[in-house]
Every structure is written in C-alpha cells, then in structure tokens.
Amino acid sequence: MDFGLDDRTALVTGGAGRLGSEDCKHLAREGADVVVLDVDLDGAERVADEVADDPEASGDAMAVECDLTDRDDVYPTIEALEEETGGIDVLVNNAGFVDAVGRMEDFDDELWDRDVELNLTGAYNVTRAVYPGMKERGWGRIVTMASIAGAYGSFAQISYSTTKSGLIGFGKTLALEGAKHGITSNVLTPSIVVEDMAKLSPEELEAFNPQFERIRQATPMKELGREDDVAPLVCYLSSEQSRYVTGQVVGVTGGADLLST
After folding, report:
1. 48 to each of 8, 43, 64, 87, 141, how far by Cα in Å?
2. Model confidence pLDDT, tens digit, residues 4-40
3. Among positive and negative, which fits the CA dihedral 37, 232, 118, 74?
4. Is 160 assigned a catalytic role?
5. Domain limits, the chain
6. I need a labelling partner for 13 at 20 to 30 A (CA). Which of 49, 127, 163, 181 fits?
7. Across-strand partners of 9?
8. How far apart are CA 91 and CA 130, in angstroms?
9. CATH class of 9-190+227-247
C-alpha cells in the first residue's frame, strides 16, 4: 500500500532512541523526508546516516539537535525547519524518560519534575510550535507515544504513568481541535517493546529481569514486543489513508491490555 508520504516531512522527537530511530527508518522507507530531532546530536546523526545508507529508504533524513524542555530552543528550531523543509507535515511525539522507579513515599522530587518537563511539557512545546503550520496548510498528522502504563498505571512508576496518561488527554484534545483543519491526532500505548529482550528465552529473560518475565507470561501472545511492531502503525497513522482516524488510543501490547491470563 502506498501511504502517500512522498514529499511529506516527518519530525520524530527522541529520534536517536530505540523507538524513535525505528520510526525514522520506516517513515523514510515510505518516502517521507525525516527530521531526526534529539538532544543527542551524535545519536541523531547516526540515525540519519543509517537512513541514508538504507537501500529501502526513498526519503532523506537530517539530524537536528534540540532540547524540548527549552522553549527558547524549540521555537526558533521549528521555525527554521519550517522554512527549510516547506513545512512539517507529520509530528511523532516520541521523546521521553522511562527510567524513574520508586514508590510514592520514596520518589525523587527531581525525577518527577524532570519527567513532567520532558515527557509532557516537551511534547506540548514542540506540538505548539508545529501546529500553526499544519493548520495553515490544512493537513497534518500528530502521533503521540504514550504507554500502557498511562492507560492502566504501573507500580512504582508514578511519574512515567502520570505523564503518559496526560499525553492521552493531550492527543485527544488535539484531535478535537484539529479535525476541521485536516489535522489528525492519535495516541499509541505500547507495552514493553524492546527487540533485544523479545529475543531472549523465558529462562534468559527471568535471569535478566524477573518482572519482565512476569509481564511476558501475563501477555496473551506470550512474548514481548519489538520496535518494529510499533513503527508500521506510526507510518499508517502518518499517512493519507488514515485521514478518518483521529482521537484514537491504540494499544500495541500483544493483548496485555485485555487483562486475560
């Protein structure tokens, strides 16, 4: 299927990371020119080089350094990108921290502030900068990466779960506001999607992290996900074909959100 992404420009935040880099590669294979945006410029350049070397990729890629928590960095960066590319058509809100762990009574206040600043406010900052151009052109796709933790909570991940839950409301509100302007907004709520862990046997996963093995066992498909289970859906939701899909929260979970055993 032709997703109609030729001549479209897609910006992926956190593009140097696991999920972000996979999104960049898949979007480029669908013909989109990709902006790999990350605070880690070396990592973003590595992903851009991988896209350039990918024989399946027909879209170009550029690496851009930007701190999403700093509006004085975000707004001029997006303004320059809009001028250089002719406009950002697709925004994938992927950047975020996932490493903070602790029960409420012991949780680190600085980690709470850090996660809210990037996971939630960072997504707001870049979307606020990109949205007017989409509205003016009458076409846009916003895909926001939340998490199953945002939909159902996650023990000892209070900042992560809260910020990802906030992104669900964020994405739905964008869908309501953007609908009459040709802008769709959808939210993905994956569970654990890490190829390296998905390759491990149950015994290896248990030795690596018993909690991850329990999650695998509780997943109806009895396996953890991979980054490339998510990226094709990002491409579809970024496409012309998804024009009538907006405001949706889509799980990529292997059935873990069915609460079955």
Report:
1. 17, 9, 10, 19, 21
2. 899 999 999 999 999 999 999 999 999 999 999 999 9
3. positive
4. yes
5. 9-190+227-247, 192-224
6. 181
7. 33
8. 8
9. alpha beta
